[in-house]
Amino acid sequence: EDQVTQSPEALRLQEGESSSLNCSYTVSGLRGLFWYRQDPGKGPEFLFTLYSAGEEKEKERLKATLTKKESFLHITAPKPEDSATYLCAPGHGGATNKLIFGTGTLLAVQP
Amino acid sequence: KAGVTQTPRYLIKTRGQQVTLSCSPISGHRSVSWYQQTPGQGLQFLFEYFSETQRNKGNFPGRFSGRQFSNSRSEMNVSTLELGDSALYLCASSAETGEAFFGQGTRLTVV
Hints:
The structure holds two protein chains of two kinds.
Chain A: E1 3-7, E2 10-14, E3 19-26, E4 33-38, E5 45-50, E6 56-59, E7 62-66, E8 70-75, E9 84-90, E10 105-110
Parallel strand pairs in A: 2-10
Antiparallel strand pairs in A: 1-3, 3-8, 4-5, 4-9, 6-7, 7-8, 9-10
Chain B: E1 5-7, E2 10-13, E3 19-24, E4 31-38, E5 42-50, E6 53-57, E7 64-68, E8 74-78, E9 87-94, E10 100-102, E11 106-110
Parallel strand pairs in B: 2-11
Antiparallel strand pairs in B: 1-3, 3-8, 4-5, 4-9, 5-6, 7-8, 9-10, 9-11
């Protein structure tokens, strides 16, 4: 059965304090690993897609990495505007765009 | 380039009624997926349509249905509404690369 686990569930950081979010997954025929950011009451905003183990992608203060069973979202020197829920979603294999979402990590960055 | 448009943004319905939600995908995207998001269950996959055909379906009762038109616009319908159907319903539009872009969602409240 497909499973996605994100940790921690919630994370509080001081502005400038770097940290990492974890996404562990078991998905048959993985077709990419997607990261999203979601603000309250809004739809998820696409951040990254990773397709193979060892791949890394960066965007501003965020860097995503992928292994065979995990993905990490590293946040370097975060700012209060980085506060949001970060969602990890492996793509299910086969001819489908179905995503399997984790429950997310709620990040709060205090000034 | 216009993003994914969902209408309406908010709905209040009474138990037993039915509701239709609409999604206009990004121009050129032929795949539209629907997700239900609740605080307890997170984002759960409802179904995916590709070129007017349902390509994949999640584990939801038959009261949840959808369709896609020749212009790729999609609708989902929920019949005989229950209190537990209260949720944020999200539509995602995907290109051939598989990256999914979400709309702002429709907040459905069943009273």
